[in-house]
Design goal:
alpha/beta; 359 residues; two-stranded antiparallel sheet; 5-stranded parallel β-sheet; Rossmann fold
């Protein structure tokens, strides 16, 4: 039987979670698998008392993670807000895995997400045959989390229509979910809470109502502060993805990663890292997540169509594809950047390869 393509966090990092649980003698909130301190250690990395290496899941400000974890120990839900690629979903999944041992109570927000995805739906064959009953009710991930005392995750909350978003208000304020058809309600058990994520750039899509905002404690996920920090994140995630995808390539060279990260940071900020030259920013996001995708794609090209070592031509394909979202405007911005910055910097191999794929 083939292995699953992507394991849930609680499966992939089971050894780390088990090691932390064995050595964790601090007080735990009701139904939590780990104490808030151990959850933070799991996210940020270190070494357990049993000598098991805890890999960092998030590279950034410790205080930010501490605030997120402590929020979930209260009656306030957590909203992770930030630009694309700031590890909102990644942190959300690992928080749920560490706290509940289950990161699968997930609602994926889209423009088509219906209220049933947050509340409940019905088995219509059973509903027509026997009428409304608990047996005919199909619980949503949020309802399951309420009854089992676990963390529910709502991804891309601002992509969900406003009237559907507001179905969370009663759940978060009263900790109950009415079922009018049965004249009943589901009350949450200890350990239940909600982590939602939202994209800064999508604020205008479906802004949260004031009533819903008040039910969340918002933690803003920043972009990496320095190029070195971002390069470290890209290398860590790309290497992990390469292992998960069984790519026979060598681990990505830090120098190539630094070049990708530098290009992305300069294009999205509109100036070179030294601040001496202005550059035209494209319409594309060029987030850390997209840098990871470029490097992972380069690893696949090097593994299957090269000697396993990433070269400029492997990087250039994904880089050009990530930058050029608008064929006219973005292409001109990239060509100007290649001519005025990359070429002048002496990165001739990357300049020629990117130029070839841009023309």
């Amino acid at each position: 039987m083939s292995e699953v393509q992507r394991q849930h966090a609680e499966v992939q990092f089971k050894a780390e979670l088990d090691a932390l649980q064995k050595s964790d003698n601090r007080e735990r909130p009701p139904s939590w698998k780990l104490s808030p301190w151990a959850v933070t250690e799991y996210l940020l990395g270190g070494k357990s008392e049993h000598g098991v290496e805890i890999t960092p899941k998030y590279v950034g400000d410790r205080r930010l993670i501490e605030v997120a974890v402590s929020t979930l120990a209260t009656d306030r839900a957590l909203l992770l807000l930030g630009l694309p690629g700031t590890a909102k979903s990644w942190v959300s999944e690992h928080l749920a895995a560490a706290i509940s041992g289950d990161s699968t109570m997930l609602v994926q927000g889209t423009a088509g997400t219906a209220e049933e995805a947050i509340r409940y739906s019905w088995n219509y064959a059973m509903l027509l045959a026997k009428g409304p009953s608990r047996a005919a009710l199909v619980p949503s991930p949020v309802m399951r989390a309420m009854t089992e005392g676990k963390i529910a995750r709502v991804e891309e909350l601002t992509r969900i229509q406003a009237d559907v978003q507001d179905s969370l208000i009663t759940i978060l304020s009263e900790r109950t979910l009415p079922i009018p058809e049965l004249g009943e309600e589901v009350q949450s058990t200890q350990g239940f809470n909600v982590i939602a994520t939202a994209n800064n750039r999508d604020r205008g899509v479906n802004d949260l109502s004031s009533a819903l905002k008040r039910r969340f404690n918002t933690v803003v996920m920043p972009t990496p502060a320095t190029a070195e920090e971002e390069a470290g994140i890209v290398r860590m995630r790309a290497t992990a993805l390469g292992r998960a995808l069984a790519l026979p390539a060598q681990p990505p060279a830090l120098e190539e990663i630094r070049r990708v990260v530098t290009i992305f940071r300069e294009l999205r900020s509109g100036q070179t890292e030294d601040g001496k030259a202005k550059v035209q920013s494209p319409s594309s996001t060029l987030s850390t997540a997209e840098a990871i995708s470029v490097v992972t794609n380069a690893m696949a090209l090097a593994a299957h169509f090269g000697d396993g070592r990433i070269r400029a031509e492997d990087v250039a394909v994904g880089l050009v594809g990530a930058v050029i979202q608008d064929p006219e405007r973005d292409r001109q911005a990239l060509l100007a950047y290649l001519d005025n910055v990359v070429k002048e910097r002496g990165w001739m191999d990357l300049y020629r390869a990117a130029r070839d794929f841009s023309d």
